[in-house]
Amino acid sequence: MPSSASNLPAVPGGDAFYIDFEGEQNGAPVLLGVLGQSEALGDSADFRQFVFDPDLQRVGTSRSTSHGPCVSTTAVDALRALRNAVEATGRPVVAWSSYEQSAILELLAGTTETSFWDGRMVDAKALAKKWKRRNHRDVVFPLTRGSGRHALRHYQKLIDYRLPPTQQGGNTGQRIRAVRDAVQKRGDYASLTPTQKRKWSSLLEHNWHDCNGMRELMLVVARDT
Asked: Is residue 6 pLDDT above 80, yes or no?
Protein backbone atom coordinates (compact mmCIF):
# COMPACT_ATOMS: atom_id res chain seq x y z
CA MET A 1 0.00 0.00 0.00
CA PRO A 2 1.48 3.36 -0.91
CA SER A 3 2.65 5.39 2.04
CA SER A 4 2.10 8.82 0.53
CA ALA A 5 -0.89 10.56 2.12
CA SER A 6 -2.11 11.72 -1.29
CA ASN A 7 -2.19 8.11 -2.50
CA LEU A 8 -4.05 6.62 0.46
CA PRO A 9 -7.23 4.65 -0.32
CA ALA A 10 -10.70 5.73 0.68
CA VAL A 11 -11.42 5.22 4.38
CA PRO A 12 -13.37 1.94 4.63
CA GLY A 13 -15.54 2.74 7.66
CA GLY A 14 -17.74 -0.17 8.70
CA ASP A 15 -18.22 -1.74 5.28
CA ALA A 16 -15.07 -3.87 5.31
CA PHE A 17 -13.45 -6.97 6.74
CA TYR A 18 -11.11 -6.16 9.63
CA ILE A 19 -8.43 -8.75 10.30
CA ASP A 20 -5.72 -9.33 12.87
CA PHE A 21 -3.22 -12.15 13.31
CA GLU A 22 -1.89 -13.23 16.70
CA GLY A 23 1.43 -14.99 17.19
CA GLU A 24 4.69 -14.93 19.09
CA GLN A 25 7.25 -12.35 18.08
CA ASN A 26 9.14 -13.58 15.02
CA GLY A 27 6.93 -16.66 14.94
CA ALA A 28 4.21 -17.80 12.55
CA PRO A 29 0.65 -16.62 13.28
CA VAL A 30 -1.37 -19.01 15.43
CA LEU A 31 -4.80 -17.50 14.79
CA LEU A 32 -6.62 -14.98 12.64
CA GLY A 33 -9.52 -12.84 13.79
CA VAL A 34 -11.92 -11.69 11.06
CA LEU A 35 -14.56 -9.05 11.80
CA GLY A 36 -17.31 -8.68 9.21
CA GLN A 37 -20.33 -10.69 8.19
CA SER A 38 -20.51 -13.01 5.20
CA GLU A 39 -21.89 -16.53 4.83
CA ALA A 40 -18.81 -17.26 2.71
CA LEU A 41 -16.82 -17.26 5.96
CA GLY A 42 -18.73 -20.33 7.07
CA ASP A 43 -21.03 -18.76 9.67
CA SER A 44 -23.55 -15.98 10.19
CA ALA A 45 -21.56 -14.25 12.94
CA ASP A 46 -20.00 -10.80 12.77
CA PHE A 47 -16.72 -12.11 14.19
CA ARG A 48 -14.83 -15.38 14.19
CA GLN A 49 -11.32 -16.59 15.02
CA PHE A 50 -9.56 -19.15 12.85
CA VAL A 51 -7.07 -21.16 14.93
CA PHE A 52 -4.12 -22.65 13.02
CA ASP A 53 -1.81 -23.99 15.73
CA PRO A 54 -2.51 -27.72 16.35
CA ASP A 55 -1.97 -27.44 20.12
CA LEU A 56 -4.17 -24.38 20.46
CA GLN A 57 -6.85 -26.03 18.34
CA ARG A 58 -7.29 -28.44 21.24
CA VAL A 59 -8.54 -25.56 23.39
CA GLY A 60 -9.93 -23.21 20.74
CA THR A 61 -13.27 -24.80 19.98
CA SER A 62 -13.77 -25.56 23.67
CA ARG A 63 -13.61 -21.93 24.71
CA SER A 64 -14.56 -19.26 22.22
CA THR A 65 -15.63 -15.80 23.37
CA SER A 66 -19.03 -14.17 23.47
CA HIS A 67 -18.07 -12.29 20.31
CA GLY A 68 -18.02 -15.31 17.99
CA PRO A 69 -16.80 -18.85 17.34
CA CYS A 70 -13.32 -20.33 17.20
CA VAL A 71 -12.75 -22.44 14.08
CA SER A 72 -9.99 -25.04 13.84
CA THR A 73 -8.54 -24.92 10.34
CA THR A 74 -5.39 -24.30 8.37
CA ALA A 75 -4.14 -20.85 7.50
CA VAL A 76 -4.60 -21.60 3.80
CA ASP A 77 -8.23 -22.64 4.25
CA ALA A 78 -8.98 -19.64 6.48
CA LEU A 79 -7.56 -17.25 3.92
CA ARG A 80 -9.43 -19.02 1.14
CA ALA A 81 -12.67 -18.47 3.05
CA LEU A 82 -11.77 -14.80 3.49
CA ARG A 83 -11.03 -14.50 -0.21
CA ASN A 84 -14.44 -16.04 -0.99
CA ALA A 85 -16.07 -13.47 1.30
CA VAL A 86 -14.20 -10.61 -0.35
CA GLU A 87 -15.20 -11.77 -3.81
CA ALA A 88 -18.83 -12.32 -2.71
CA THR A 89 -19.22 -8.89 -1.10
CA GLY A 90 -16.68 -6.65 -2.84
CA ARG A 91 -15.56 -5.29 0.53
CA PRO A 92 -11.96 -4.27 1.26
CA VAL A 93 -9.77 -6.04 3.80
CA VAL A 94 -8.32 -3.80 6.51
CA ALA A 95 -5.39 -4.49 8.84
CA TRP A 96 -3.51 -2.22 11.22
CA SER A 97 -0.25 -2.26 9.31
CA SER A 98 1.67 -3.99 6.55
CA TYR A 99 2.39 -7.00 8.79
CA GLU A 100 -0.81 -8.81 7.82
CA GLN A 101 -0.03 -8.34 4.14
CA SER A 102 3.44 -9.86 4.58
CA ALA A 103 2.14 -12.66 6.80
CA ILE A 104 -0.53 -13.65 4.29
CA LEU A 105 1.93 -13.81 1.41
CA GLU A 106 4.27 -15.92 3.54
CA LEU A 107 1.51 -18.29 4.67
CA LEU A 108 0.35 -18.75 1.08
CA ALA A 109 3.81 -19.08 -0.45
CA GLY A 110 3.84 -21.86 -3.01
CA THR A 111 0.08 -21.72 -3.61
CA THR A 112 -1.91 -20.08 -6.41
CA GLU A 113 -3.54 -17.69 -3.90
CA THR A 114 -0.74 -15.13 -3.55
CA SER A 115 -1.63 -13.09 -6.63
CA PHE A 116 -5.07 -12.30 -5.19
CA TRP A 117 -3.59 -10.96 -1.95
CA ASP A 118 -0.66 -9.02 -3.36
CA GLY A 119 -1.36 -5.35 -2.57
CA ARG A 120 -4.86 -6.22 -1.30
CA MET A 121 -4.61 -4.87 2.25
CA VAL A 122 -5.85 -1.44 3.36
CA ASP A 123 -3.34 -0.10 5.90
CA ALA A 124 -5.44 1.36 8.70
CA LYS A 125 -2.43 2.81 10.47
CA ALA A 126 -1.55 4.98 7.48
CA LEU A 127 -5.11 6.32 7.38
CA ALA A 128 -5.16 6.89 11.14
CA LYS A 129 -1.85 8.79 11.08
CA LYS A 130 -3.18 11.13 8.39
CA TRP A 131 -6.35 11.67 10.45
CA LYS A 132 -4.33 12.38 13.60
CA ARG A 133 -2.14 14.94 11.84
CA ARG A 134 -5.26 16.75 10.73
CA ASN A 135 -7.33 16.52 13.93
CA HIS A 136 -5.00 15.84 16.87
CA ARG A 137 -1.66 17.34 15.92
CA ASP A 138 -0.98 18.35 19.54
CA VAL A 139 -1.19 14.77 20.86
CA VAL A 140 2.16 13.01 21.19
CA PHE A 141 1.97 9.24 21.66
CA PRO A 142 4.50 7.52 23.93
CA LEU A 143 7.06 5.26 22.32
CA THR A 144 5.84 1.71 22.89
CA ARG A 145 8.24 -1.21 23.00
CA GLY A 146 7.59 -3.52 20.07
CA SER A 147 4.92 -1.25 18.57
CA GLY A 148 6.68 2.04 17.96
CA ARG A 149 4.86 5.31 18.52
CA HIS A 150 1.70 4.42 16.62
CA ALA A 151 0.30 1.40 18.45
CA LEU A 152 -3.38 0.80 17.83
CA ARG A 153 -4.18 1.15 21.53
CA HIS A 154 -2.97 4.78 21.51
CA TYR A 155 -5.49 5.58 18.79
CA GLN A 156 -8.19 3.63 20.62
CA LYS A 157 -7.62 5.82 23.64
CA LEU A 158 -7.81 8.93 21.45
CA ILE A 159 -11.36 7.99 20.37
CA ASP A 160 -12.35 6.89 23.91
CA TYR A 161 -12.60 3.24 22.92
CA ARG A 162 -13.11 1.25 26.12
CA LEU A 163 -10.19 -1.16 26.26
CA PRO A 164 -10.04 -3.30 29.44
CA PRO A 165 -6.83 -2.94 31.49
CA THR A 166 -5.96 -6.59 30.80
CA GLN A 167 -5.94 -5.89 27.06
CA GLN A 168 -3.44 -3.05 26.99
CA GLY A 169 -0.94 -5.10 24.98
CA GLY A 170 2.44 -6.71 25.42
CA ASN A 171 1.25 -10.11 26.69
CA THR A 172 0.37 -11.96 23.50
CA GLY A 173 3.50 -14.07 23.21
CA GLN A 174 3.48 -14.99 26.89
CA ARG A 175 -0.17 -16.06 26.72
CA ILE A 176 0.41 -18.21 23.66
CA ARG A 177 3.41 -19.94 25.21
CA ALA A 178 1.64 -20.55 28.50
CA VAL A 179 -1.44 -22.12 26.91
CA ARG A 180 0.51 -24.14 24.37
CA ASP A 181 2.86 -25.53 27.03
CA ALA A 182 -0.07 -26.32 29.31
CA VAL A 183 -2.11 -28.18 26.73
CA GLN A 184 0.94 -30.17 25.63
CA LYS A 185 1.31 -31.36 29.24
CA ARG A 186 -2.36 -31.65 30.22
CA GLY A 187 -4.05 -32.64 26.97
CA ASP A 188 -7.18 -30.51 26.65
CA TYR A 189 -8.97 -27.36 27.77
CA ALA A 190 -10.84 -28.99 30.64
CA SER A 191 -7.58 -29.99 32.32
CA LEU A 192 -6.07 -26.49 32.29
CA THR A 193 -5.85 -24.46 35.49
CA PRO A 194 -8.11 -21.41 35.94
CA THR A 195 -5.11 -19.15 35.29
CA GLN A 196 -4.26 -20.96 32.06
CA LYS A 197 -7.88 -20.75 30.91
CA ARG A 198 -7.88 -17.02 31.61
CA LYS A 199 -4.77 -16.60 29.49
CA TRP A 200 -6.53 -18.24 26.55
CA SER A 201 -9.64 -16.11 27.04
CA SER A 202 -7.49 -12.99 27.31
CA LEU A 203 -5.69 -13.85 24.07
CA LEU A 204 -9.00 -14.18 22.24
CA GLU A 205 -10.37 -11.00 23.80
CA HIS A 206 -7.23 -9.10 22.82
CA ASN A 207 -7.69 -10.22 19.22
CA TRP A 208 -11.33 -9.13 19.31
CA HIS A 209 -10.45 -5.67 20.60
CA ASP A 210 -7.77 -5.29 17.94
CA CYS A 211 -10.35 -5.95 15.23
CA ASN A 212 -13.29 -4.11 16.77
CA GLY A 213 -11.22 -1.17 17.99
CA MET A 214 -9.76 -0.80 14.51
CA ARG A 215 -13.25 -0.75 13.01
CA GLU A 216 -14.42 1.85 15.54
CA LEU A 217 -11.39 3.99 14.75
CA MET A 218 -12.03 3.79 11.00
CA LEU A 219 -15.64 4.81 11.57
CA VAL A 220 -14.39 7.96 13.33
CA VAL A 221 -11.81 8.59 10.62
CA ALA A 222 -14.48 8.18 7.93
CA ARG A 223 -16.77 10.57 9.78
CA ASP A 224 -14.05 13.22 10.01
CA THR A 225 -12.84 12.85 6.43
From this structure: no
Distance CA(30)–CA(24), nearest Å, equals: 8
Return the bridge partners of 131, or none: none
Average pLDDT over residues 165-175: 79
Domain edges within the chain: 14-224
What predicted TM-score, i.e. pTM, was given to this entire model?
0.92
What span, in angstroms and rounded, lies between the C-alpha atoms of 198 and 178? 11
- Alpha carbon distance 73, 198 (integer Å): 23
What CATH fold (topology level) applies to the domain 14-224?
Nucleotidyltransferase; domain 5 (3.30.420)
Sheet with strand 121-123: strands edge to edge: 70-72, 47-51, 31-35, 17-22, 93-95, 121-123
Q: What is the mean pLDDT of the chain?
A: 89
